[in-house]
Amino acid sequence: MTQGFAVDRAFATVAFKRRLAYKIQWMVALVLGGGAMLVSMAMWRNLLADGALSGYDWESMRAYIIIGFITATVVFGAADWHIADRILDGHIAIDLTKPVDFQRARAAEYIGSMISTVPTVIVGVVGAWLLFDPPGPASALAGVLTAVSFVLIFPLAFGITYLTVLVCFWTKRYIGVMWLREALLGFFSGMMIPLAFMPSWLQAVAWALPFPHFTTTPAAIYLGRVDTAGALGLLAAEAAWALGLWFGGRLVFRQAVKKVTVHGG
Amino acid sequence: MPILEARSLTKTFRRPDKASGFKGAVKHLAQRRYKNYTAVDGIDLSVDAGESVAYVGPNGAGKSTTVKLLTGILKPSEGTVRVMGRDPHTERIANAHDIGVLFGQRTQLWWDLPVEESLKLLKHMYGVSEADYKRRIAKFDELLDLGEFMPALARTLSLGQRMRADLACALIHDPKMVYLDEPTIGLDISVKDRLRAFLRELVDDGTTLLLTSHDLADIEEVCERIVVIDKGAIAYDGPITELKAHYITTKAVHLILDGPADLPELSEKFPDYAWAAGDAPSEVKVTYESARFTTAEVLADVTGHLRPRDLSLSEPSIEDVIRRLYAGELTK
Amino acid sequence: MADTSTPGRSLTARHVGGVYGRSLVAQIRAITEYPADFWVMASAGVMWNVLQLAFLTVLFAAVPDVAGWDYHEMVMLAGLLSVAAGSTALLCDGVWSTGGMILKGEIDYRITRPAPVVVQVATTHIGMQGFGEVGFGLVMVVFGWIGAGLGLAAVPVGILGILCAIVIEGALITVFCAVNFWIKGPMSPFAFMLIDLQNSAMNLPLGLFPAGVRIVTMFVVPVAFVNFVPVAVLTGHLSAWWLIGTPLAAVASVLAAVGIYRLGLRSYDSSGH
After folding, report:
1. pLDDT class of C4 with cuts at 50, 70, 90
2. CA separation for the pair C178, C80 (Å, rounded)
3. DSSP labels for B183-218?
4. Domain span at residue B289?
5. Where are the transmembrane segments (chain A) (predicted)?
């Protein structure tokens, strides 16, 4: 078991370092995430100048947008390309000959690359804090539970990403699949607009998907929109999605890997 | 008048000078430092129409950089290039019609398209008439068997097929000056033979050819003139036959004996010849200067003394000469 | 030399147009090789826009206007940007490969051929998401047009706006991809930032942002002329005089793209030895 963890750590470290070496990536992530955050702030300040909408006032919206920035930076900044490329260029045939579990190794790498976005997150959050002075968490416990929901985003993001990357067994390029996933995630997570603004049927659709946990769940806990029991319920749902997608990935992979010879690795 | 003329051609690259690893990267970010690296250093080269020139040198000698300078891909740091009187870099479009280029390491085929589609796109790009196109394709088909993979997607071709298709791409507009950078790299013997035969025909038809290769058989079979480059400068330039006559001054006899050979004793008895051990203990190699001794004399001496079970004669190949040129043992 | 004066030795617009058209048509044929990719990409293009429309619809259920712009006007704004971005994916998506081609030395062959390098690079690929983006973007433009009460009389202005938008967008992406001639890398982070920031900011009225943003988007990197200015003129948010700036921005962007690509080729140092 410890042997297994050592391997995981090795994969994660390599991915982390590889990502850090890409200096320009930092700047890109900061400009994009920071830019989107500033645009959202400009829009909502204008809209909420006269009072609250759908339960959000300018005060709580500032915290909401910063939470959206954190999850967007971590999720959109991870190195999903590397997994896709291994499948598309046939490297996977080599991976399969190694005494390492493919999914677990990719998970370690993916999470390592997510961790490499943390410096960007810190710079962005500190900047946003100074500029916009958002409210603190509803309570100390809410703060802790928000942190837990952030941590759960790591396996959850991997689960969703991995499943979509596996589509590359059937396509020639990854980018379309990635865009599709990112579009759905951006909308149904509540990053673009809080789910509370949506009609109830659309909210129902969103909650039937894993996406709300990327912004709505941490924001709801942080702002005290749910009580402790509700927060724990949300975290349980988030964890259940992470677990379910993990096994879903295994299931799909077993089917997909039969295609390896077709790609001719 | 030469078709290709380069004068004191020089290319200097600026390479970032940074230590390896993360620390090095950070340091480089803070204080950018560069090293100058001269890949081609004052080359003078003049090629007449119809010549076939081999351009050889060890890895990193500056061969590909020279080809890129001659074809206008790179801008010289110093010196000039003229192809049919034009500067290939500044008069790129006009020059393009006269030259054909092949880089063996890369393809110019459109990866996701059938070979035929790529050739047709090039036909239009060069403004080749339908009649000329058909005639040339028919000729390429005859000599290179293009037909069998014309409808295939480029990415599905074998290396040998790809190279043949790329050769057709490079020649579809019947260029007067053709540059081939390692056209036989990675190919098997039969494809190489076929390619060489094709290139010989090309030269016989009057096309001017500049070819780089690590395979000296390409050079001996296709070219008449050889230019050896090392460390960015020309080490030899002349006819291949002259290179051989000038530098191939020794011959050798390989002997297989019944038992182990006594080299010190042989050296003492025949001090005019050089004696060396062969591949096995019972084998010896006798080297002698071809100007001083005839092979018959040597054989008479040796067989009279040793009674070998078998023997063979060998002439140093051009490969040996070039190896010694690279090693700096020979000077012009 | 006699040869220099042979016809066909210099580039004519007709020749360049022919090379461009043929290369692009050939790429369309290549698309049919991968039907799964086509559908994934096209639906990704549609999905972005469907969700953009959903965002606006959800937002305007709660607010009457954003900085004075109503629902239909903002739908037009988003639709026009989508048409412009989608068209560049269809017409010059290959420029995104500039960085990769420089790294792998794949520009080499293109320099030795008698056609502009940028045209050869631009036509190496078609972004199939463009079909979805242009299709649904046009739907949004028309929907917003009718909803905003614009009549047929304004159609010529609309068409001019769309054409200029496509040209500006394509030229700006080319400029930012050409940065890879100096800052090497397989990706085009600057072009990527351009379109991503456009997607965040330019779907909103410029009035929301500080004056500095307005100046940059109009006069430095003229993305405002892609969608904001034409829609603002059509809907009366800006005076009609601003419309003159649209073709001017298009010309300036194209000149910048061609110039920077040329400069880039001059400092191109190929790869390997």
Report:
1. very low
2. 25
3. TTTT--HHHHHHHHHHHHHHHHTT-EEEEE-S-HHH
4. 249-315
5. 26-44, 64-83, 110-132, 138-171, 183-209, 229-249
| Alpha helical stretches, state H, chain C | 13-31, 35-62, 71-92, 98-104, 107-111, 117-122, 129-147, 155-177, 189-201, 211-215, 228-234, 245-266
Residues of chain C positioned with their CB less than 8 A from the CB of B112: 27, 30, 33
**Which of C36, C37, C55 is facing A193, going by the closest CB pair?**
C55
The letter for the amino acid at B150 is M
Can you tell me the distance from the alpha carbon of C191 to that of B86, in angstroms, rounded to the nearest whole number?
Answer: 36
pLDDT value for C203 = 94
Q: Which 134-163 residues of chain B touch chain C by CB within 8 A?
A: 153
> Phi then psi for B8, rounded to 5 degrees?
35, 50
Identity of the amino acid at A13: T
Taking only the tens place, the pLDDT of each residue in C71-98 is 999 999 999 999 999 999 999 999 999 9
What does the alpha-carbon distance between residue C73 and residue C66 come to, in Å, rounded to a whole number?
A: 10
Question: Do the bridges between strand B34-48 and strand B2-16 make them parallel or antiparallel, or are there none, so unpaired?
Answer: antiparallel
Give B-chain residues touching A17 at CB under 8 angstroms.
22
Contact B25 A23 (CB under 8 A): yes
Q: Is A23 on the interface with B (CB under 8 A)?
A: yes
Give the pLDDT score at B274: 86
**Which one of B84, B125, B169 makes the best mutation probe of the C interface by having the most chain C beta carbons within 10 Å?**
B125
Q: Is the pLDDT of residue C40 over 50?
A: yes
Q: Has residue A225 got a pLDDT over 60?
A: yes
Q: Which of B146-155, B305-314, C129-138 has the highest mean pLDDT?
A: C129-138
Q: Residue C98 carries which side chain, given as an amino acid letter?
A: T
- Check B105 against C272: CB less than 8 A apart: yes
Asked if A20 lies within 8 A of B22 by C-beta distance, the reply is yes
Distance from CA of B167 to the nearest CA of A (A): 27
In eight-state DSSP terms, residue A213 is G
Residue written as token pair 């967007």: A72
Going edge to edge, which strands form the sheet with B177-181? Answer: B99-103, B177-181, B208-212, B52-56, B225-230, B233-239
| Residue B89 forms part of a structural domain | no
Label residue B29 by pLDDT band (50, 70, 90). low
The reported pLDDT for the residue numbered A88 is 86
Lowest mean pLDDT, pick from B90-94, B146-150, B261-265: B261-265
pLDDT digit string, tens, across residues B250-275? 888 888 888 888 888 888 888 888 88
Among chain A residues, CA nearest to B28: A23
Verify whether the Cβ–Cβ distance B126 to C114 is below 8 Å: yes
Q: Do C3 and B75 touch (CB under 8 A)?
A: no
The distance of B173 to chain A (nearest Cα, Å) reads: 34
CB distance from B29 to chain C under 8 Å?
A: no
3-state secondary structure A108-154: HHHHHHHHCCHHHHHHHHHHHHHHHCCCCCCCHHHHHHHHHHHHHHH
Per-residue confidence band for C1, with pLDDT thresholds at 50, 70 and 90: very low
Domains of chain B: total: 1
pTM over 0.90: no
The alpha carbon of residue C57 is apart from the nearest alpha carbon of chain B, in Å, by 41
Q: How far is CA A84 from CA A80, A255, C124, in A?
A: 7, 17, 22
Asked whether residue B266 is domain-assigned, the answer is: yes
Are the CB atoms for C167 and C254 separated by under 8 Å?
A: yes
The answer to whether the CB atoms of A172 and C34 lie below 8 A apart is yes
Under an 8 A CB cutoff, do A170 and C36 touch?
yes
Residue B156 confidence (pLDDT) above 60: yes
- A151 vs A238: CA distance, rounded Å: 10
- State residue A261's pLDDT score: 54
Residue A191 touches chain C, beta carbons under 8 Å: no
CB pairs under 8 A between B and C: 94
Counting one residue from chain A and one from chain C, the pairs whose CB atoms sit within 8 A come to: 94
Query: What is the domain-level CATH number for residue B253?
Result: 3.30.70
